[in-house]
Each structure stands twice: as C-alpha cells, then as structure tokens.
Specification:
This protein has ten helices and three strands, in the order βααβαααβααααα. By secondary structure, it is mainly alpha-helical. The chain has a three-stranded mixed sheet with strand order 2-1-3. Helix 1 packs across helix 10, helix 3 packs antiparallel against helix 5 and helix 3 runs antiparallel to helix 8. It starts with 10 loop residues before the first strand and ends with a helix.
C-alpha cells in the first residue's frame, strides 16, 4: 500500500498534548517510563507464556497475542510523541501520517477482536468445563487468532484507501499527538460522506459484533453462576473472568468516550486517547498477572533460573 497524496499537502502538524513548555520535561519522563513499562511488561508476559509449559493453554495463547498487539499499538504513536516533546518538531510527513493511521487501526482492531475471542474462551471454560479441551483445541485457537489479524489488516486497509483519495486543506494542524482518522476527516476539503458511511456500517459491525460476543458470553456466564450462587463459585468465576472483564471495561470505556460520546475534539478527548493508547496497554500485564497464580509461579521460576545460572 503506497499512499498517494491527492492534495499536495507534504506534511501535517501534530499539536501534541495540551501541556505547557515548562511541563514538557516532566511529562516526557512520565510517558517514557510508561512506554518502557508497557514494552517490558508485555514482552515479559509473552516470554513467560512461551517458556512455561503450564501456560501453554488457549487463554494464555490469546493473552500472548494481546500483549504483542498492545506493544505494537503503543509503539505506533508513543515514540513519535516522545520525539516531538524532545525536539519540539511536531511535523509528520504525509506518508508517515497515513501509515500511522493504518497501523493504529490494525492494532486497535486486533485488540477488539482478541478481547471477544478471550470472552468466548472464558464462556466455554465456565459454562462447558467438561468439553473445554475438545472445543478449544489448538486448531480452533490458531484459526481464531489468525482470523483476528487478517480481518484487522483488511479493515485498516479499507479505511486507509478511502482516506488517501481525499484532499486536505491548507490548515493541516492535527489537534492530537498522533494521526487519528476522525481528526483527519475533519481536516479534509473533500466530500467525506463515503468515509463516514463506511465507518458507520463496516466499522460499526467490526466494533459491535465483538462487543456483542463479549456481552453474550458474560450474560451466559452470569446465568450459570446464579444457578448455584455459592461463595466458592463466585470467587472461582471472578478469578477466571475478573481480569478480562476489567480490561474490557477500560478498553471500551475510553474508546467510547473518544469516538462515540464526543461531538467535538478537545483536550478531554486527547486525555481519553492517552488512556487507551498508553495507559491501557501498560496496565494489561499487571491486571492479568497480579491475581494470577500461574503467572506468578512462572515469574518465580524464571527469576530462580536466572539466579541459578549466575
């Protein structure tokens, strides 16, 4: 995919975060620490899942792909934001902006679909525990993950190709710290009705179907739990589904505040963008690890192995 500039605009200007010059140094250090935590935390999670045979289960297989997607998702936007804060050069080439839009959509969509796949996995584990090994076999798990990636690539390609056919006005200032599709459509001088129609229909399906799958899975899980409302059953269900449910709430909550409930783009939307591009990917390894005995044991074994090798 080679972006073809229809308007002659050679670059865009990223306005960045709504912070003063005197606060740039502190925020640079904060976001650098958050980005490094995101990368190291998710890569450590992937390493533990790969090394520990006890974690070679469908749930952790999906979690490893979610962790990789989170690292990639943050890496699309955060390094550029950090560089802008250091150099005070907020320009981004037209081609760089288009590619940033493409990969931002790809990894956001992968997260969305993987969360639905993980919800289905939890549904089978709670509602059909005896049939779990036969239903969630390796072939199905690979197929679900591969389908999530393929659908995401084509979904992003569709919206990117529709974007590059547009012309842009002379005012090419993007009121955000990265190239966002919603903001770019507002900057266009062309008719964006087709783009908006595709976002509403195809994009709406891509967003609502996984969300419906997640809600349906947890409704079924809740129904099963309420049939025998014991304390032990509630605790087991919470330990099985609590981390995933918290991540889903955080992901969809911040996403909805930016793209659904917001009519104009202002500083509140930029803060919400920071939440789902920086904070959520950083928190995911901690959310899935703090209450997870298997992950803790795998980490202890890795530390002990490293200590023994010394």
């Amino acid at each position: 995919m080679r972006p073809d500039n229809q308007s002659g605009v050679s670059q865009f200007l990223l306005q960045g975060l709504p912070i003063g010059p005197e606060q740039q140094g502190a925020f640079f250090a904060l976001f650098l620490a958050m980005y490094l935590t995101t990368v190291l935390g998710n890569l450590l999670l992937i390493l533990l899942i790969r090394l520990d045979a006890r974690l070679h289960t469908p749930m952790y297989f999906f979690l490893s792909h979610l962790a990789f997607s989170d690292v990639s998702f943050s890496s699309v936007t955060i390094p550029k934001m950090l560089m802008d804060m250091q150099t005070q050069d907020h320009a981004i080439p037209y081609a760089g902006c288009i590619f940033q839009v493409y990969f931002h959509i790809v990894f956001a969509c992968v997260d969305n679909l993987l969360l639905a796949v993980m919800a289905y996995d939890r549904y089978v584990a709670v509602c059909h525990p005896l049939h779990y090994p036969t239903i969630m076999r390796e072939e199905l798990c690979v197929l679900l993950v591969a389908a999530s990636w393929v659908v995401s690539f084509f979904h992003a390609l569709l919206h990117t190709l529709l974007l590059v056919r547009l012309s842009f006005c002379t005012d090419s200032t993007i009121n955000n710290f990265f190239c966002d599709l919603k903001v770019l459509l507002k900057l266009s001088c062309s008719n964006t009705s087709l783009n908006e129609l595709v976002i509403l229909t195809e994009g709406g399906i891509i967003m609502t179907l996984p969300l419906a799958c997640i809600l349906g899975s947890y409704i079924c899980i809740g129904t099963v739990i309420l049939r025998v409302p014991t304390t032990k059953g509630l605790l087991k269900a919470f330990s099985t589904c609590g981390s995933h449910l918290f991540v889903v709430s955080l992901y969809y909550g911040t996403l909805a505040s930016v793209y659904i409930f917001s009519s104009s783009w202002d500083s509140k939307d930029i803060i919400a963008s920071v939440m789902y591009t920086v904070v959520t990917p950083m928190l995911n390894p901690f959310i899935y690890s703090l209450r997870n005995r298997d992950i803790k044991q795998a980490l202890e074994m890795l530390v002990n192995r490293a200590y023994f090798l010394k």
